[in-house]
TrEMBL record:
Highest rank taxon of the organism: Bacteria
Name of one Pfam family that matches: Zn_peptidase_2
Swiss-Prot/TrEMBL GO biological process terms: proteolysis
Keywords: Hydrolase, Membrane, Protease, Transmembrane, Transmembrane helix
InterPro entries assigned: Zn_peptidase_2
Keyword Membrane among record annotations: yes
Name the record gives this protein: Putative Zn-dependent protease
GO molecular function: peptidase activity
Membrane-traversing stretches: 6-23, 130-158, 194-218
């Protein structure tokens, strides 16, 4: 049992750490490589948005490193300073990726809508599942533990649904920057590496979420057998 717990703990600790290191090293590497059109991340975002008729979507600068995101509520693409002002392949790829989410929003992309609908349940699951699981398993309240598993399941489902959303946004990003001539053919490989590394963080998050759910599910089943 102790060995199994150690393996579980190492996996949920090392998988996200590896993904984080990978994305940061890749992003920093291609921050040093300029795109041939010398367009900033802001200009890349604005060009793709305008070419697709999304004139009402705003592009704003935010602080932090890799804090880039798209807010569907306010129709705003928010880019970190290094991306907003940068002319690197990292800035180009990340900016285009976030605009990819705006394009998904424009066409009511099914997985994006599903993920958005899951947010309240996923948030509740993330906040409350451990409380119900730990109290339920420690005190022997198996119905409470089962509720915790169900709540955790919503959080896990959110992570899983995030994967096609992010992969699709990256695919759209590459299509746009190539079709609009923002990057040349020889630069596509670098942009693809940045996007692939970023995708690892979502894969890692989903893998860890599934491992945690499996671990607690096995604990619950064991407690049920021992009752």
């Amino acid at each position: 049992m102790a060995a199994n717990y150690l393996i579980y703990f190492l996996l949920i600790s090392l998988i996200p750490l590896w993904a984080s290191v990978k994305v940061q090293t890749t992003a920093k590497k291609y921050l040093k490589v300029h795109n041939s059109t010398n367009m900033t991340g802001y200009e890349v975002a604005r060009k793709i948005l305008d070419e697709n008729g999304l004139y009402d979507v705003k592009v704003e600068e935010v602080h932090g490193f890799l804090t880039d995101h798209y807010d569907p509520r306010t129709k705003t693409v928010r880019l970190s300073s290094a991306v907003y002002n940068g002319v690197s392949l990292t800035a180009t790829a990340v900016s285009a990726h976030e605009v990819g989410h705006a394009l998904q929003d424009q066409e009511n992309y099914a997985f994006l809508r599903f993920r958005t609908a899951l947010v309240p349940l996923a948030s509740l699951g993330s906040q409350m599942s451990y409380l119900f699981l730990i109290l339920g398993l420690v005190l022997g309240f198996l119905n409470m533990a089962l509720l915790g598993i169900i709540l955790m399941g919503f959080a896990v489902l959110f992570q899983v649904v995030t994967l096609p959303v992010e992969f699709n946004a990256s695919g759209r990003a590459l299509d746009q920057v190539v079709a609009l001539g923002i990057i040349r053919n020889e630069e596509e490989r670098g942009a693809r590496k940045v996007l692939s590394a970023a995708a690892l963080t979502y894969v890692a998050a989903a893998a860890v979420a599934l491992l945690e759910l499996l671990y607690f599910l096995l604990q619950f089943l064991q407690a049920t057998r021992n009752e």
